[in-house]
C-alpha cells in the first residue's frame, strides 16, 4: 500500500527537497505541499494523506495549532492522518506542546535521508517515533516542566499490575523487545499489553503513553 504524504513547511526549498527524496522511494507518494499551517489543515482534509510532515514554526498558523486541529474531534475527514513534527533545533521549546497537540513523533530537519524515510514508514504503520535518544531526552525535559496531573494518576488505577509495569517501561523509552526481556515474557505478550494500555487510557500511540507516564508520576525525568 502506498503511503500518501503531505509536506507542510514555509520554505519552498525544504518542501522540494523532502518531496524529491520521498517520491524516490517505493511505496511513498507526496500528494501535496503546504506553506502555512492553515494550508496544511485544509490540504489535509482535501488530500487525505496518511502522514503529514509538519514544521513547527510557520506563518498564519503554527504547526502546533495546525496539528491540534487536524487530530482534534472536529476534523472533517474520516481518517485522521499521523503527524510527524519537523524541528530545526534538538531542544525546540514547542516539542512537548506539539506532542500534546496530537503529533506522533518528531524529527530534526538535518536528519539523514534514510532516517526521514524510516520515520515516515514508522509513523504510517501506527507506531510512534521513540527510538532516537533525542526523543526521550526532549520528552523528559518538557515533561519535567509540567505539573503532575492528578487525573492521569487516578486513571492508572484502570490498569492491571502487569500493564502498569509495561507502561513504566514504555515511559523509560524501552522497545517491546527490551520490555519483554526485562519482564521475562514474550514480545507478542508485550504487544498485547501495549494495545490494552492505549485502549484503556485512550492514548493515540506510544509517544502519548510516554507523556502519560510522566504526567502520572510513574517515571521521573532524568537530567
Commentary on this structure:
This protein is α/β, with parallel strands linked by helices and 223 residues long. It folds into 2 domains: 3-129, Rossmann fold, CATH 3.40.50.2300; 148-215, Orthogonal Bundle (Arc Repressor Mutant, subunit A). The protein is 51% helix and 13% strand. It has 11 helices and 5 strands; from the N terminus they run E-H-E-H-E-H-E-H-E-H-H-H-H-H-H-H. It has helices at 12-23, 37-47, 63-71, 95-101, 113-124, 133-144, 150-155, 161-171, 176-183, 187-201, 206-215, and strands spanning 3-8, 28-34, 51-55, 82-87, 105-108. A 5-stranded parallel beta sheet has the order 2-1-3-4-5, with helices on both faces. Helix 3 (63-71) links the parallel strand 3 (51-55) and strand 4. Helix 8 crosses helix 11. The radius of gyration is 17 Å and the shape is globular.
